[in-house]
Amino acid sequence: MKPKLSRYIISAVVICLLMASLIVKLATVTLSDTGQYASQASSKSTATVTLKGARGSIMDRNGVVLAYDKTCYDVQFLRDANNRTSYYSAVYTEALIKAIGIIEDGGGTIIDSSYIRRDESGNFYYDWGVTSERAIMSRYKSFCDVMGFSIPSEHADDMSYWISAEDAYISLRKSWYIPEELSYEDANKIISIRQMVNLNNYRAYEPVTIATDVSAEVVAKIEMMKDELPGLQTTQSTTRVYPYGETAAHVVGYTQKAVTEDMLSLGYSYSDFVGVAGIESTMEEYLTGATTEKQGYRLIEVNRNLAEVSEIEVVAASNGDDVMLTIDIAYQRVVEQALADIIAEINATETALIEENPDRYGEYDDIELAQTGAIVMMDANSGDILAMASYPSYDPNWFISGLTDEQAEYMFSGEEAATLTPTLNKAISLKRAPGSIFKMVTGLAGVMEGAITLDETVDCVDRYVLTDESGNPIERDAPSCHTSYPSSHADQNLRLALTNSCNTYFYEVSNRLGIDKLASWAEQLGLSDRTGIQLTGEITGQIGGQTTLFDYSEIDFDNLSNPLATQRASLPSYIYGSLKSKLQAYLSFCGKTAESDDISTCALELMELQDGSLDNKGGDVRRILSDVLGIPEGVTKGQPWVSEIMSMLNELQWKPTLTIRTGIGQAVSAVTPVAVARYVATIANGGTVYNANIVSRVVDEYGSVVVEYEPSVFNVIDAPDEYWEAIHAGLQGVVSPEDRGTAANRFSQEFRDKGYLDLLSGKTGSAQVGNNPIDIENTSWFVSYAPRDNPEIVLVVCIPNGYSGSSSAPAIEDIITYYFDKQIASVPDSLVPVNGLTP
């Protein structure tokens, strides 16, 4: 064979051998990797990441935004689900320490959700954020499971054997490589973040938020240092903003992370902010963008470690609806300022009175001065609320970033919280005796029921003395008028009695009516029912009658710690305490003892005898003492105990003296400012009792109206025109200098010169608190409407411890002045004379 040909043959054989080798190798690799890739493919799955919309805005009647979601940036942490080794645990801890420093240096705050706490003495404990034992055990078990702490099987139901807070803290510091030199405060921030990650382990593809609403500087630093901060990222988000701060806070309300277990089924998660008070709460279903029907989603592919591999589909979320209110923020600010000013003015006047009259006030300790109050401004012809002020207020923005210790103390736990109740909307959650502003009820009821005519007159007397069934005078506690006898009112008809606020006239009318008719008319005028306003916390007023004073059928024998919780008056609780003290003394006299519950039960059974009459019930008293406490009836007969007990029970019985006091807005009557507003609106508009309304409409994110709120009527009083005219004339006289009404001299000369006093009608009320003799602690009421001939607005001022009704007149003047000044300013001047030519 020739050498050249031989070389070709050898080369060809080598090439064939190499090819064969490659084919075999390729087949081996293919067969081997097919299983691996098939395994990997089968380990991939899809997951859905929920997307939530922004919360809707709250606006005033003119579209001025009172609450909205602002775009902001959050810092998040996402642990790579594929890297769970000890090495990466140390790397992540180092990255978190750096990120926390950046965030806090930039003014941000780390979300603190750690269950582990330490008190001032250095003792560790758990704070699970719940109170029920079942919920605590559930969170404790979940915490142990995700943190890798074992629960002894033999003590699975006894949490005292589970890992302590201190041991958990030490163990977690070690397992997560938290440096020893790091303080408890800083170390617990790392623990808080890692706790969130572990509790979210079943959705490891979702990051956890560690700081919200951080500055642009923080965002920039974290983005620039990404290589040094594995797992850290920033994302666009929203935060709630209340641009007017304390203004209208009680109306708008606030949001918090306050999702309850039953809300989870609606699509909420525990990290969502929800409305807690005010419109934010009552209109939650519209405002929220977190519920299932508003949610969008990201459909992603994840591997067996739940790490995201790719994005498959995105469906955007829908935003919450906007809520437009009936209030006007311009009126709101004026009303709130007028309220703050009048409280300060009355407080200063009262302080001066005490200093200047030591003989009059020196014997009393701790006289309460004006510090709080409410004003309601209502549309007289629809029930729409134009402004609603409660003092003092708070800033709802505090709840978004978390309350400081000082803020929490001011609002919930300190002395100011107890006396000033800043979170309480006093326009709807405060009820006080109405005093003389109730006299329109008594007068209207009197003429409507035929108890008195418009022309019939009553002369004022020194003391209004009732007679009992036998015709004997009831001299005890006989009331008088506010004027000093003999300089008293004479020939008082309905109009004059309202102008002069003559007590005697209304004593007589209410005595003729009786409590049932009087209470019925108060109810018809909307004073003893909720107004229906769309706000949290509205309470119901009360007028009078046996069940208002004491309702024996409402005693809760199954709740001996608070058996009289549903009683509307405070007197039953006082009598209950007094009875228990008496019963304890009777037992001591007999040398007996009894369980506390038995004494409570005995007192309640005695009170149950008071069903409106105590006739022939002395035997029942002796029987109850014997059956419940074991005191022999023979012993009781020899003591004055039955008489003592019957005397106390008699205090719980409604009497005519209470009826006549109810006629001037005293006794056990108590009403809310918002209920008074609709009552005065009824007087002003001539009989239509509107429900109070503070929501105008709800609009979706595209501008379509979802719900519109029209005026709704609670009742209509079909009274003759002359009745309304007489009442209107009486209320005009209250502010008239010519008629020398009770508020005639409380308005400035400037107010008169502008002609605004001639457009106003009103009524004062100085309501005594119980039997309190200190006039400074009277509740000051001033109600008014304007313009008097064609009423548009109603104003109600209520100042607890406000001294007198006329004390509040300056607040009315400030608001009415603004209202009419604004109307005048909105009317353009005529640029062209009548019949003139436009240039």
Keywords:
five-stranded antiparallel β-sheet, 839 residues, disordered C terminus
Brief summary of the model shown:
The protein is α+β, with helices and mostly antiparallel strands. 40% of the residues lie in helices and 15% in strands.
Strand content: 5-15%
Q: State the low-pLDDT regions, or none.
A: 1-5, 22-42, 829-839
Count the helices. How many?
Answer: 30
Shape: globular
Number of strands: 23
The average pLDDT score comes to 90
Oligomer: single chain
Separation of the first and last Cα atoms? 124 Å
Radius of gyration: 37 Å
Q: Determine the structural class based on helices, strands and strand pairing.
A: alpha+beta
Main β sheet profile: 7 strands, mixed
Helix content: 40-55%
Detailed description of the structure:
The protein is an alpha+beta fold and 839 residues long. It is built from 30 helices and 23 strands. The strands form seven sheets. Strands 2, 3, 6, 7, 12, 18 and 19 form a seven-stranded mixed beta sheet that branches. A five-stranded antiparallel beta sheet has the order 14-13-23-22-21, with helices on both faces. Strands 1-10-11 form a three-stranded antiparallel beta sheet, with no helix packed on it. Helix 16 (439-448) crosses helix 18, helix 16 (439-448) crosses helix 19 and helix 21 (571-589) packs across helix 22. 39% of the residues are buried.
